[in-house]
Structure formats: C-alpha cells, structure tokens
C-alpha cells in the first residue's frame, strides 16, 4: 500500500506544481487554493508512505515523479521547449526513479 500512497503523492505534486504556475504568483484565488490543497494532500500521502518505505527511496521517487510530471505538463499544456538535452535530462530522472524502486527491499 505504501507504493500506492507514494505514487498518488507524486501525482499530487504534479497537480500542485501546475496549479502554482496557474496562480500567477498566488494572485489568483482558485489556483492558489488548489495549490495549497494539493500540497497538503501530497505531503500527507508522502508521510504515510514513509511509515514503511525508507526516507531516501520515498523522497527520491516522490520528487522524481513530480519533476518528470511537471516537465511533461510544461511541454504538453504550457508549450515549453522540447530539446534533446531536456529530453535526455527527463530520461535520466526516470532512470533514477526506476533504479531507486528496483533497489528498494520493500
């Protein structure tokens, strides 16, 4: 169950990062509120997953999901640049997430 919580926490990290971008520096109420709700939920699920998963594993995977997800949303929804170096960086992050998962005894 811890892995499910961790994955959900990572998805919520993507959600709140996107909402933060939409909030225009916390000047728009709805995206600001959604950012805060997403942050609280994401941190809460991360905390629950850490009851059984090692700190290094849980935190690395959580931030990795958020980083790659935010990168993908930036490209897909916000028209951010797609360059070979950015794609390579994203692939390296995904590789790190997979290796961290495979190295975890849980």
UniProtKB/TrEMBL annotation:
Biological process terms in GO annotation: xenobiotic detoxification by transmembrane export across the plasma membrane
Annotated signal peptide: none
Protein name: Guanidinium exporter
Primary location recorded for the protein, binned into one broad class: membrane
Transmembrane segments: 27-46, 58-79, 85-102
Keywords, sorted A to Z: Cell membrane, Membrane, Transmembrane, Transmembrane helix, Transport
Record's keyword annotation contains Nucleotide-binding: no
Topology in membrane: Multi-pass membrane protein
InterPro entries with a match to the protein in the record: EmrE-like (IPR037185), Small_drug/metabolite_transptr (IPR000390), Small_multidrug_res (IPR045324)
GO MF entries: transmembrane transporter activity
Family according to the record: Belongs to the drug/metabolite transporter (DMT) superfamily. Small multidrug resistance (SMR) (TC 2.A.7.1) family. Gdx/SugE subfamily.
GO cellular component, one term: plasma membrane
One Pfam family this sequence matches: Multi_Drug_Res
Keyword field contains Membrane: yes
Annotated compartments: Cell membrane
